[in-house]
Amino acid sequence: MTADPAGTPATHPDLPEVSARWVRMLAWYGPRYVDKNFSAVRLLGDPPDTENPRPLLVYLNHPSWWDPMAIMLLCARYFRHRTGYGPIDAVGLEKYRFMEKLGFFGIDLQSRAGAERFLKIGRAVLSTPNQTLWVTAEGHFTDARKRPVSLRPGVAHLARKADPAIGAEAVPLAIEYVFGEEKQPEMRLAFGEPIVLGDPSRSASDWNTHLANRLEQTMDHLAEASLAGDLSVFTTLGDGKRGVGGVYDLWRRARAALKGEQFDAAHGSRGDAS
């Protein structure tokens, strides 16, 4: 899950190998695939500072099958010179083996060995410069409106055991999928403020609560902005498929041609809805 065109090799023996060739292929294909299925991709606020080489733990809510694609879009745009890794259910990885080449590593969610592998690779990522660990921290599909936010314990253990001298940070990432004026939904994203890791005086339980609260705040912030409806506060990362399609758009196109106007497929306030 690296977007580094040079394919920076892993610098820690516990890190799996990532294929620069496969990453380049996905960086080309991914945005086009998303554009076909979403009317827009929007980011609220600013991304984290990825020029600083400190390792990052980006942990996010998990509302949809599309979440890994959202991660890959962010990698291609903002994390190009960093190598990224992410855990995935080992059963699911068996169906999509190519994802190993992108930095995903399989873990058995129900076994102690799976938890130990997650912590081993996670600690390696968070001790290596220019690396990012992406984790859907809820551990299963969860509606973006569910409160309180509950995280699996793995990220808290990583946060507690991180080496303070390295300065690794955790960054909450909120994702939601919004239907509005267009036939296709929008993908909306927001990063929260970074959290410095490695305070062993805070228990794993305290870390879990702290991380969950910060993710919940970020999700609430994104939800409030979406409800307000002011798109000017978002940065548009992708402008995808617009319009309803079929006979309705054919009629609108013909109507615009008769008026000598340029046809805009956008529905509602961004197009001709009459």
From TrEMBL:
<keyword id="KW-0808">Transferase</keyword>
<keyword id="KW-0012">Acyltransferase</keyword>
<dbReference type="GO" id="GO:0016746">
    <property type="term" value="F:acyltransferase activity"/>
</dbReference>
<feature type="domain" description="Phospholipid/glycerol acyltransferase">
    <location>
        <begin position="56"/>
        <end position="178"/>
    </location>
</feature>
<protein>
    <submittedName>
        <fullName>1-acyl-sn-glycerol-3-phosphate acyltransferase</fullName>
    </submittedName>
</protein>
<dbReference type="Pfam" id="PF01553">
    <property type="entry name" value="Acyltransferase"/>
</dbReference>
<dbReference type="InterPro" id="IPR002123">
    <property type="entry name" value="Plipid/glycerol_acylTrfase"/>
</dbReference>
